[in-house]
Amino acid sequence: MIEYPNFNFEIEHKAPDSRARVGTLTTPHGVIETPNYIFCGTKAAIKALSPAQMIEAQTDIILANTYHLMLQPGADLIEKMGGLHKFMNWNGPMLTDSGGFQVFSLGEGTMANEIKGKSKGHDNKSLMEITEEGCVFRSYIDNSKIKLTPEGAMEIQRKLGADLLMQFDECTPYHVDKDYTARSMEMSMRWGDRCLAEFERHHNGAQGVYGIVQGGVHEDLRQISAAYTADRDFFGTAIGGCLGGSDEEMEAVVASSVPHIHAHRPVHFLGIGRIKDIFRFVRLGIDTFDCVIPTRLARHGAAFIKGHPGETINITNAKYREDHSPLDARVDVPASRDFSKAYIYHLIKAGEILGMQILAQHNVATINMLMREVRQAIRDDRLDDLEKEWRG
Amino acid sequence: MIEYPNFNFEIEHKAPDSRARVGTLTTPHGVIETPNYIFCGTKAAIKALSPAQMIEAQTDIILANTYHLMLQPGADLIEKMGGLHKFMNWNGPMLTDSGGFQVFSLGEGTMANEIKGKSKGHDNKSLMEITEEGCVFRSYIDNSKIKLTPEGAMEIQRKLGADLLMQFDECTPYHVDKDYTARSMEMSMRWGDRCLAEFERHHNGAQGVYGIVQGGVHEDLRQISAAYTADRDFFGTAIGGCLGGSDEEMEAVVASSVPHIHAHRPVHFLGIGRIKDIFRFVRLGIDTFDCVIPTRLARHGAAFIKGHPGETINITNAKYREDHSPLDARVDVPASRDFSKAYIYHLIKAGEILGMQILAQHNVATINMLMREVRQAIRDDRLDDLEKEWRG
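Output (structure tokens, whole complex):
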């Protein structure tokens, strides 16, 4: 049996009418309250923001991507540099994924929508082979052939040294049939056992590993996969894989998974994180979210605004050209408070990096404000009211 | 007679064996000590750095470029937004140039080396016409025809609202003959008078204007132009135009200009600012410098390092791949102190904006440290020793 003496998850408050809950998640690098949002520092950096700017935006936890880091600069180098925390100068809690999602999403992220069911299937040109042992793909850095196995994914994540790890799984796309999805899920379960065995060999209390619920859009498969994760010595549970092509399908997938997972472990929802998603999936029992959109939207000129229908404004809209008002004076961070929309409009139009930096810090701070308010609203049993405040 | 009641320049200490001096330059937005360095916020933003990050790097004064801002977002818009200080959220002293240098350097900066004598002449494709009235050029934003006159340059700078302004001048290139340079210089003197007349019409004490010494590499012309600036009611003197093709020619130009300029006015050297230049030209009586290189070099992976022969290291050199040491622990700013060279190497190789941000803050902080040490060394009469410490 694997124990996690330096980790803990306590549920402190449960909503009376949904699975929403407030908890505390303890890691060797600190305690965070849940529900919370894990910001993506894909290549060991948050796009356009320094660690100090992330802390200023009241960020609790970040993640980095195993897939990108194993290719550049490599897990051995990061281990030699003292691990990801020291490398990035981030001393708070951190998560790494297993690399699986990116390997199975074409190596460049272009199949991400396909896995999420938002587009038709197409060839995955960088993925060369999937077998029981693992998979082989081509590096986007130098086109070399790379093998990734469950044991390899755990070894790399051990060298990276994040607090929270993910098992290696096959991320099944939307267009495959149920039979393929079932066989894929079963392999992910065998891979999960191999991950735990490899994890246990080196376990020193510094890391905790999550099992991942697969099973596509099929309720019966999701239940089997969820029960599998509950049965094994994972620290937490993640919900991954194909979530369907619509909001309704996605909700059904989560609703059919959560009742069968371990009730006392933290639940992470992989790669989802618009404001509407936070409200929907907190109610279904999700404790942590991650998504690239707060910083990716920033690079496209979009700012999350509390109460704005549609969640974001696009600062490059001509109506902001002479707008004296700040992005959002309610958000206590320089980016949201100290610059006019007209200035940020100018920066984005002129291609100035500072524009992206301002929008990125604003979006991160806004999502962190959202998560603080969500936690308080669950405690106060007023999540519906809060959702109206945020979603207009 | 134009008076500058809200401005002052006091020389507090003079070196016994050179023209080096320590002074205080008072503007409506604060007092700075000189010699000092004015960092380029070309399009109303320092590349990759926020105002807070500039202040953290102990920056005293910045500039913005009239040429870029008149085209995008336009001086009227910035005036409507309350002026550049408010627009950029920079509350310290600020300078704008007249737009002349960029108009005469092809609209894209590609003739800058030509003006500085570093390349052979070529066609200036965006400059359409130079007459006594002013010049006409094509906008790099929308290809429209734009007229810029001495009066127009002052009006735009008045709307931008910086503390320190520059007269409009023709920036003569290197390859023209002495006769052309002389006629150009004489026109710049007439343009200077028109600038002062226009400036005086609206003068309310908020701005101070610099005359610019032209005359190419010709000692007699430089003397005439210097004497002209001293004779008129400029607040300060700038040294501009073609400075020759070598360090020796550049030094000769400054050495032949400074003895003839007004002895009690601050002296700005336009567009020059490597470490070796600071030491050479402080000795010749320069009080302020400006140059894009601290932030431009950062975008190319280069970091100024005190004592490093050649002034900069390039962080993308393979020898830094596993280097645990910070850029420079002597520089008291997060960018210089809190990240390993190996991490910054990775960020630049991976194309992460954070890498540029770190190098930019480090370079700005290092140049500010240099200027503080230069001022102290002049006071202590040990500039030669300090130069050895910096230049190795």
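The domain at 8-291 of chain A is CATH 3.20.20.105 (TIM Barrel).
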